[in-house]
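User: Please fill in residues for this 241-position structure.
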């Protein structure tokens, strides 16, 4: 049994897809990040950074105490090594998979997240930030389009954790006004993966669905929600540990 500490963001969805692809037995523990569920001392024992997702593997390889993993890239690599799928064991294909995985977690994900923040949540008058992050997001998508023009999957001929990491980000692209249908290779890749049974299961499970507050182009947070997401409460969670 694996506990999935979960919020229905692209980072959370990529781990849910991976668990479905593995056929793993897992329990979803949902968090309302606007309500500040992730800021508790108890969750800080699982992830000191107080961000989702995280997993607790109660049946780690070799037995022993449960294993906790946080950060989506680390979780995907851990699960791939646990199940022996979606990450080559050595050589150039492994290097390519890990390169594209880290490209997502270090570049595409953060740039998409910042673009989304300044368009969806920040006060008006943030034109430079919007231009900066949407421009960088478009640059990264150009890199991805070129890679998918040459390859069926992101890291080559085989579906991997690199694809799983990148695929849910279409939602982020949509909320910042980028229509991926205009990127033909990326669109074909997205539709191909959407047809996978594991992805279909993730998209239809009620306990993995996105609350209304997670979708839409503009969000208006009240003072407490802002504090929990971006302000004093968010900061205090790590200083009070």
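Assistant: Residues filled in for all 241 positions:
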């Amino acid at each position: 049994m694996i506990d999935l500490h979960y919020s229905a963001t692209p980072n959370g969805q990529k781990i849910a897809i991976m668990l479905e692809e593995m056929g793993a037995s897992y329990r979803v523990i949902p968090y309302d990040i606007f309500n500040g569920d992730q800021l508790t001392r108890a969750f800080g024992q699982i992830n000191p950074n107080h961000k989702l997702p995280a997993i607790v593997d109660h049946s780690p390889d070799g037995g022993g105490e449960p294993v906790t993993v946080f950060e989506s890239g680390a979780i995907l690599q851990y699960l791939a090594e646990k199940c022996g799928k979606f990450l080559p064991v050595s050589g150039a294909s492994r290097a390519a998979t890990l390169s594209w995985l880290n490209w997502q977690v270090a570049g595409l994900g953060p740039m998409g997240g910042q673009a989304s923040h300044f368009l969806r949540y920040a006060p008006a008058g943030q034109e430079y930030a919007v231009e900066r992050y949407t421009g960088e997001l478009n640059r990264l998508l150009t890199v991805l389009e070129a890679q998918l023009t040459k390859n069926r999957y992101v890291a080559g001929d085989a579906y991997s954790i690199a694809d799983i990491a990148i695929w849910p980000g279409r939602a982020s692209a949509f909320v910042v006004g980028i229509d991926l249908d205009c990127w033909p290779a990326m669109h074909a890749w997205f539709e191909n993966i959407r047809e996978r049974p594991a992805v279909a299961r993730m998209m239809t499970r009620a306990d993995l669905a996105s609350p209304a507050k997670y979708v839409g182009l503009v969000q208006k947070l009240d003072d407490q929600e802002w504090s929990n997401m971006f302000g004093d409460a968010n900061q205090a969670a790590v200083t009070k540990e």
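For context: The mean pLDDT is 93.
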